[in-house]
Inverse folding.
């Protein structure tokens, strides 16, 4: 069985199959052929730590990715734990197209991909990045691979990440004012008169305009993904390939990415597999799952031994109806994205408990037009104490901290103990308050 790992950048779960008002016909068609997980969470709300957790099966602090690889210098403590290295040892052909964020952009050979499609085009030497031509290379690979060796194909799409990489040939200037890194459009020409803001942000023209730009980025992402789905079908690989569609973390707006709110950690997760795999037929799964469950799931579906370092659980029993849920709680963490803003959280079906290293939260700014606007209103640098507790049924936007509510004293005690236990089990440095310094340029 082949594996296609198709991952977007900064999309969260804000796509049409999750009920949001966007135009994603390719993802809608795919959703009806696959299993959609309603409550899927990443392990961290920034790209490097999140992807490191997914591809290693361990929490970011366990694998050593406390922040972004590259200029900041964060690296896996052991790249032998990367999914690619593990599949290499299982005699898979491992192939990268587009983005990776588990190692530096300049040299990610430690991950161990056998083929890097960008490197096979001398006109585009910068491997590990996504370009409009990247999908051309994916189509060529699928059209010419001879079916003799099973493959793992990672396709990292940059949309709907904001444009912060200057590409003069595409008239992209790196100003983070549009949700595309591969296609030019003018945000001012988009019609935002009938667009709603995100529910936790004010209904202001600037935020509606930026939300309309996000819609445009998601449409571009959907187009790229649709071309991959079509190429799989036309090459015949759809009959023996597990296709996994996800994003690294939450949407890039204040209150999303870089926070441990659900808007920062909840991600789309759709998996389609061959007949008999359990991952077919338009199923929707309600219980909570984690990116950490993907590595053990692949081992289960491929019938290869799961390594002993994995923290997650296979999704197979859940999708086959052999259990009601996999997790009573999921755990998330935040460390560096530039500066340190260390947070830990445990989430159950109804409640979320958070612990902060510093009593001032939301120190990490976001890219894009809403940030200076919300900064002006006092969104950032809010002194909120070192603990928080939210009732997600009564307060899904996580605005009312109930940490001192006597009615939730037992809930707080239970979740605090769960968090303590998890940090001890995973050898987390958070309780000590001593975090590793940024290895490279801070």
């Amino acid at each position: 069985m082949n594996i296609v790992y198709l991952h977007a950048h900064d999309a969260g779960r804000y796509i049409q199959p999750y009920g949001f008002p966007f135009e994603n016909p390719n993802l809608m068609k795919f959703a009806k052929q696959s299993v959609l997980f309603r409550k899927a969470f990443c392990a961290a709300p920034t790209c490097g730590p999140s992807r490191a957790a997914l591809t290693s099966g361990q929490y970011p602090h366990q694998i050593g990715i406390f922040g972004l690889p590259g200029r900041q210098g964060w690296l896996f403590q052991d790249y032998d734990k990367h999914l690619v290295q593990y599949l290499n040892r299982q005699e898979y052909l491992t192939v990268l197209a587009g983005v990776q964020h588990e190692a530096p952009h300049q040299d990610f050979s430690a991950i161990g991909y056998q083929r890097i499609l960008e490197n096979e085009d001398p006109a585009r030497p910068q491997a590990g990045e996504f370009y409009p031509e990247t999908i051309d290379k994916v189509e060529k690979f699928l059209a010419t691979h001879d079916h003799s060796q099973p493959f793992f194909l990672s396709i990292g799409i940059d949309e709907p990440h904001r444009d912060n990489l200057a590409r003069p040939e595409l008239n992209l200037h790196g100003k983070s004012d549009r949700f595309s890194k591969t296609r030019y459009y003018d945000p001012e020409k988009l019609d935002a008169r009938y667009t709603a803001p995100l529910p936790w942000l004010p209904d202001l023209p600037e935020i509606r305009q930026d939300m309309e730009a996000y819609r445009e980025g998601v449409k571009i992402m959907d187009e790229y993904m649709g071309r991959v789905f079509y190429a799989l079908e036309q090459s015949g690989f759809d009959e023996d390939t597990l296709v996994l569609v996800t994003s690294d973390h939450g949407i890039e707006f204040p209150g999303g990415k870089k926070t441990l709110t659900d808007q920062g950690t909840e991600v789309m997760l759709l998996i389609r597999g061959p007949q008999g795999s359990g991952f077919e037929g338009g199923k929707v799964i309600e219980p909570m799952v984690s990116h950490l469950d993907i590595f053990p799931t692949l081992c289960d579906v491929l019938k290869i031994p799961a390594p002993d370092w994995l923290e997650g659980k296979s999704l197979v029993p859940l999708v086959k109806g052999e259990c009601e849920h996999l997790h009573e709680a999921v755990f998330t963490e935040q460390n560096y994205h530039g500066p340190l803003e260390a947070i830990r959280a445990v989430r159950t079906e109804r409640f979320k408990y958070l612990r902060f290293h510093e009593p001032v939260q939301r120190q990490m700014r976001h890219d894009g037009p809403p940030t200076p606007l919300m900064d002006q209103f006092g969104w950032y640098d809010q002194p909120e104490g070192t603990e928080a507790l939210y009732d997600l049924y009564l307060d899904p936007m996580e605005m009312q901290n109930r940490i001192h509510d006597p009615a939730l004293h037992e809930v707080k005690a239970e979740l605090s103990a769960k968090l303590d236990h998890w940090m001890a089990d995973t050898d987390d440095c958070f309780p000590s308050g001593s975090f590793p310094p940024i290895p490279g340029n801070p």
Remarks:
- The chain has a mean pLDDT of 95.
